[in-house]
Amino acid sequence: MDKTEFIWMDGKFVKWDDAKIHVLTHTTHYGLGVFEGIRFYKTAEGPAIFRLKEHMDRLYKGAKTAFMKVPFSQEVYTEAVRETVRKNKIEAGYIRPLFIYGYGKMGLDPHGAPVNCSISCWPWGSYLGEEAVKVKISSFIRIHPQSTHADAKICGHYVNSIFASCEAKAAGYQESLLLDYKGNVAEGPGENFYIVKDGKIITPPLGNVLPGITRMSLLQLAKDNGIKVEERLFKPAEVYSADEAFYTGTAAEVTVIQSVDGKEIGSSAPGPITSKLKEQFLDIVHGKLPKYRAWLDYV
Predict the structure, then answer these.
(1) Helix, strand, or coil here: 123?
(2) So which residues are the catalytic ones?
(3) Which one, of 292, 252, 282, lies nearest residue 54 by Cα?
(4) Cα distance between residue 165 and residue 136, in whole Å
(5) For residue 175, how many C-alpha atoms fall within 13 Å in the half-sphere facing its CB?
(6) Structural domains in the chain plus CATH codes
(7) CA 259/CA 44 separation, integer angstroms
(8) Which H/E stretch holds residue 34?
(9) Alpha carbon of 4 to those of 11, 12, 46, 88, 254: distances in Å?
(10) Per-residue pLDDT tens for 177-198?
(11) Angle 52-65/74-88 helices, nearest 10 degrees?
(12) CA angle at residue 106 from 103 to 111, to 5 degrees?
């Protein structure tokens, strides 16, 4: 990965190579921490962070879920995100805000361990590449919603995602698709999932999928374009017979899906609806559609 110069840690900036933690840091052993992934883009008015407030709202909500008493107010921490982008002097990239339980306590109960906060940013291109991707339905299921808080970006959740992603890549695919415990389509390892059928977008409902910020934005954009959206459960058979399919996520942005389990999706990829929404989304994040200016936080 490309280094930047500074990382914000617990209220001050340190050099990238000096941003270190103790080997007995609680979160590294037990996985309870929360994070966000946020992109910022080059625009005519300078770097712009996409939906910063919504990301910060989700981060602080996740911190409460994880029993964390964050030592910085949301307002102070949000400004630190902006300042991290400014100080590193890059025009576009990825931001990783992170709250972890730190060094000083072992055992499953995190109470008594300090909450450490950091913000990193670096240049990062397209997560899944620019071309349509081939997807495999994973043998690993999405974490059962009664076994965790599925709506929070908890560090330990992503072990599930890693297994699914590595399995897919070992089989020659670019990404995986996880089902829920009832065999319904859920989401990708780090992306929300959609199909298009007869001009309508269909996507799994909230409950055991992450309430993605890009997901929320994409569904609003679809409605603004007069495209019908249906949030409901569906099985893999509907995926195989779909006209189009795509992922969204902060890292993935809008990624076209070419095939699932070797079955081509539609007659060609990308389809017209996916293409239209992807084009508009990229125009929005680069500050080219004034109607959606409120989604950008200029730094």
Answers:
(1) coil
(2) 153
(3) 292
(4) 9
(5) 26
(6) 6-122 (3.30.470.10), 133-285 (3.20.10.10)
(7) 36
(8) strand 33-35
(9) 18, 16, 18, 6, 26
(10) 999 999 999 999 999 999 999 9
(11) 130
(12) 80
Q: Is the peptide bond before 270 cis (omega within 30 degrees of 0)?
A: yes
Task: Tell whether the model's pLDDT for residue 208 goes beyond 90.
Answer: no
User: Cα–Cα distances in Å, from 15 out to 91, 92, 95, 116?
Assistant: 19, 20, 16, 17
Q: Which has the closest alpha carbon to 189: 236, 147, 251?
A: 251
Please, what's the b/e burial string for 127-143 (b: 16 or more CB within 10 A of its CB; e: otherwise)?
A: bbeeebbbbbbbebbbb
Stated pTM of the model? 0.95
Residues facing residue 231 across a β-bridge: 203
Q: What's the Rg (C-alpha) of the chain?
A: 19
Could you give the maximum distance between any two Cα atoms of the chain, in Å? 57
Number of residues that this document lists for the chain: 299
Contact between 258 and 264 under an 8 Å Cβ cutoff? The reply is yes
